[in-house]
Design brief:
Number of helices: 14
Oligomer: single chain
Number of strands: 0
Largest sheet: none
Mean pLDDT: 83
Distance between the termini: 21 Å
Helix content: over 70%
Shape: extended
Structural class: mainly alpha
Low-confidence stretches: 67-71
Radius of gyration: 30 Å
């Protein structure tokens, strides 16, 4: 979508508005669901949905912002936000994993106080949380500020009142991010434990490195960005800073109302009505009932028709080809090297070497390797490997362009 918005659809206001609407709706729905959820994994999953909304907003705004190099600036902000979100979610999802491994629970009422006196969890989580929430000076602040500025510039394309409305949706969603991240912090590191915490070590060395390392990268990037480019340092000026501070103030208000007021008595309640639970009402029935039933029905039909269909295809479209000639064993290399080794063995060791012993062995090994590689190239793993390599190349190229700028 980023490539399309920055190339094929650049300047297309209809495309930009469509992406903006999807992005703003996504960020709001994800953030609101996260605020009122009582399951740690669900909060973080809804948070990811919301942050994808921020990225889509950056793409939509970048497609039509008219100021010099504005498109590139908006897309740079989106790439920075992608990087920040990746690092943050490494920290917080691994934190959730540590909690579950120790307590075998994810409900906020069952995990309260787990993080008390656990600095190896608390410090990385705080660094990740303030960055995701867009606290000024951290990596997430720079990405959100760039996207926010690009969104404001959309007033040159769309109705200014509409853009003002979108801007406030953006700021409120940013405040909601601070709200649910602060809620998790309160539950894990401030609330009194509901039960005695495990006495055993809560982190092994590998887990500690996995949680701490991404938080160090977040802190290093937050320091490096304003030092590397004057434009990032300019985002700390008061005119730009007002947007970030407004979002922080909204987050504090939301946290006070939703977490401190609605959850009196230290009991966290899921206020969503049961009929709004998409997982229980839509996704699980589809995956566990409708999909197996549909696939099973189709499979039974295909099983009845399969033999006749295959026979018909083999006699019409895909006729059987003549039997191939017997495959020649080995290659020129295996023949030359194998025969040479046989000669040297016979000459230097005085052994009676059966003709072509090593040569045949190398030829057979070569055929085994070729067959293995054919099977591997036809496998799903090979396709996924190529896809991952392609994604890494594309992301590396995008980051390279960002660095050049």
């Amino acid at each position: 979508i980023m490539f399309i918005g920055n190339t094929l659809m650049r300047g297309d206001s209809g495309f930009a508005l469509f992406i903006l609407v999807i992005g703003l709706c996504t960020m709001v729905i994800g953030a609101v669901t996260a605020i009122f959820s009582v399951n740690l994994k669900k909060i973080l999953a809804c948070s990811s949905v919301s942050q994808i909304g921020f990225m889509l907003t950056g793409i939509g705004a970048g497609a039509v912002t008219p100021f010099a190099s504005g498109e590139e600036i908006a897309f740079v902000g989106t790439v920075i936000h992608m990087s920040n979100h990746t690092l943050v979610k490494l920290v917080v999802f691994l934190t959730a994993g540590v909690v579950f491994e120790n307590l075998h629970a994810l409900n906020l009422n069952d995990i309260k106080g787990f993080g008390q006196k656990k600095p190896a969890l608390a410090i990385p989580y705080v660094l990740a949380a303030v960055s995701l929430a867009g606290i000024p000076g951290f990596m997430g602040y720079y990405s959100k500020s760039i996207i926010h500025e690009a969104l404001v510039e959309c007033a040159h394309t769309f109705n200014p009142s509409l853009v003002t409305f979108m801007e406030w949706v953006f700021l409120i969603s940013g405040g909601a991010t601070l709200c649910y991240m602060a809620k998790i912090f309160k539950v894990l590191f401030i609330d009194k434990p509901v039960k005695e915490m495990p006495a055993k070590a809560y982190l092994n060395p590998a887990q500690a490195v996995a949680v701490i390392l991404p938080s160090i990268v977040i802190l290093a990037a937050s320091i490096y960005l304003p030092l590397s480019n004057a434009e990032y340092a300019g985002l700390l000026e008061f005119e730009v800073l007002k947007g970030g501070l407004t979002s922080v103030a909204i987050g504090i208000i939301l946290f006070t109302v939703t977490t401190l007021t609605l959850n009196k008595g230290e009991v966290y309640r899921d206020i969503w009505p049961e009929w709004l639970d998409l997982e229980a009402k839509v996704y699980r029935p589809l995956l566990l009932s409708v999909l197996p039933l549909t696939v099973g029905f189709v499979a039974r039909i295909m099983d009845k028709m399969g033999d006749g269909l295959v026979f018909a295809i083999r006699k019409t479209i895909l006729r059987d080809s003549p039997l191939p000639a017997e495959r020649v064993e080995g290659t020129i290399l295996t023949h030359v090297v194998g025969r040479t080794i046989d000669v040297f063995r016979a000459f230097f060791k005085g052994e009676h070497v059966v003709r072509n012993t090593t040569e045949r062995h190398m030829a057979l090994r070569n055929m085994e390797v070729e067959e293995t590689m054919k099977v591997f190239r036809r496998s799903l793993s090979y396709g996924l490997l190529l896809a991952c390599i392609g994604i890494f190349i594309i992301l590396g190229f995008i980051l390279y362009l960002v660095y050049l700028r």
